[in-house]
Amino acid sequence: MTLTLTPKTEAMLLARAEDEGQDANTLADTLLADLLARAQAEEIEAIRVGLEACDAGRVRPFSEFAAEMRAKYNLPTHLSDEEIFSGEDGLVNK
Question: Do both 40 and 65 map to the same domain?
Answer without folding.
Answer: no
